[in-house]
UniProtKB/TrEMBL annotation:
<dbReference type="GO" id="GO:0018659">
    <property type="term" value="F:4-hydroxybenzoate 3-monooxygenase activity"/>
</dbReference>
<dbReference type="GO" id="GO:0071949">
    <property type="term" value="F:FAD binding"/>
</dbReference>
<dbReference type="GO" id="GO:0043639">
    <property type="term" value="P:benzoate catabolic process"/>
</dbReference>
<dbReference type="InterPro" id="IPR036188">
    <property type="entry name" value="FAD/NAD-bd_sf"/>
</dbReference>
<dbReference type="InterPro" id="IPR002938">
    <property type="entry name" value="FAD-bd"/>
</dbReference>
<dbReference type="Pfam" id="PF01494">
    <property type="entry name" value="FAD_binding_3"/>
</dbReference>
<dbReference type="InterPro" id="IPR050641">
    <property type="entry name" value="RIFMO-like"/>
</dbReference>
<keyword id="KW-0274">FAD</keyword>
<keyword id="KW-0285">Flavoprotein</keyword>
<dbReference type="InterPro" id="IPR012733">
    <property type="entry name" value="HB_mOase"/>
</dbReference>
<feature type="domain" description="FAD-binding">
    <location>
        <begin position="2"/>
        <end position="343"/>
    </location>
</feature>
<keyword id="KW-0560">Oxidoreductase</keyword>
<protein>
    <recommendedName>
        <fullName>4-hydroxybenzoate 3-monooxygenase</fullName>
        <ecNumber>1.14.13.2</ecNumber>
    </recommendedName>
</protein>
Amino acid sequence: MKTTVAIIGSGPSGLLLGQLLTKAGIDNVILEAKTRDYVLSRIRAGVLEQGMVDLLRKAGAGARMDKEGLVHEGVNISWNGQLHRIDLKKMSGGSSVMVYGQTELTRDLMDARLDSSAQTFYEAQNVQPHQVDSDQPYVTFTHNGEDYRLDCDYVAGCDGFHGVSRKTIPEDKITEFERVYPFGWLGVLSDTPPAAEELIYAHHPRGFALCSQRSLTRSRYYIQCSLDDKVEDWSDERFWEELKKRLPEDVANTMVTGPSIEKSIAPLRSFVVEPMQYGRLFLVGDAAHIVPPTGAKGLNLAASDVQALYCLLKEAIQQNNPAALERYSEVALRRIWKAEQFSWWMTNLLHDLSASPFEAKMQDAQLAHLLESVAGQTLIAEQYVGLPYELKED
Ligand code: RFL
Ligand code: PHB
């Protein structure tokens, strides 16, 4: 079997890259370890930057998002029992974000791929890239008990944090940067109307809380929890009670609660690998970096990586300029590090760090200043709606 770009992983990175390449007439094959339904069962991000919204439209997968997604022009920070609204549109010079779940956009991308002739192997086992430091790389895998070899010109490692692609790169060729946080997020999805029109990020002495949403009838909530906590420790009742304690009284009093339809605990991590390429293998999205979810950047960074790689692959393949791809890592990393910084900063600003009383006062002082200052609100708004992409498609 032969293709131009072998894509490992059918999360948002792999599917979006595949779809853009297919639209541009560049042959690609996706190899995914899990089933389609398993990929769709993962409840993750929900806030899309304008750049990602535009990419989904370009990939021909934006129609349902445009119909069902919710445009948010502001976001709230709850502190000292009060909501402080940041006017994203005003402060960022006209941008907003789109609330549309990762599950839904993954489904849309899968459907768009089904409508094309591009090939996807779900439940591909033992996926392994080979000779990526040569100009004849290939990927081997097993599917339905049969062994395959996929020859290709390029390999896109879109296989997430635990994937095989990053591990293929010799240890002495990459550097890893990591911060693991001493707390987690307990998330609940419920078919209840959102607590507020726009998202609420809450800083409270009992810990951080977030009120997010998927639609006007489906809410997503998170509370900061201990890494030792188990999902079984948290009945729905206990979750709602704790969430309400961390929110302003009027929000808590009017909040509609109901049975959870999903409940999970996620650890928080910052991670970046440099460089994001080795020979003809390019790492994309979570395969190369992780952010704590506080800034809603994980999925959006995957999209900006895809945009950069797509532009450079197009130049390499269609304008016969393979050297263009040498820039991928540096272009992607410039944007990644800024989002890493924002996510780390928001995490430290809003969580209970169990630090000294002095440090808690420092958090309060910083919040007070940020929320009353135009410069402070502008800083948050600019980053939250997403920094510009560096490359433009010709
Ligand atoms: P994904 O979504 O992890 O997809 C990778 C795909 O690769 C497959 N795979 C393999 N396929 C073949 N062979 C192998 N050896 C393979 N190993 C893995 C996997 O099955 C999977 O289908 O990475 P991608 O595409 O880069 O997308 C990134 C986003 O999913 C991610 O950044 C965000 O979801 C991060 N994230 C969140 N981001 C936010 O912005 N807001 C959130 O609220 C938020 N919540 C989360 C999250 C990530 C989580 N993870 C990774 C545990 C909550 C969780 C629990
Ligand atoms: C979500 O809706 O899952 C979500 C929204 C914003 C975040 C993190 C998660 O910062």
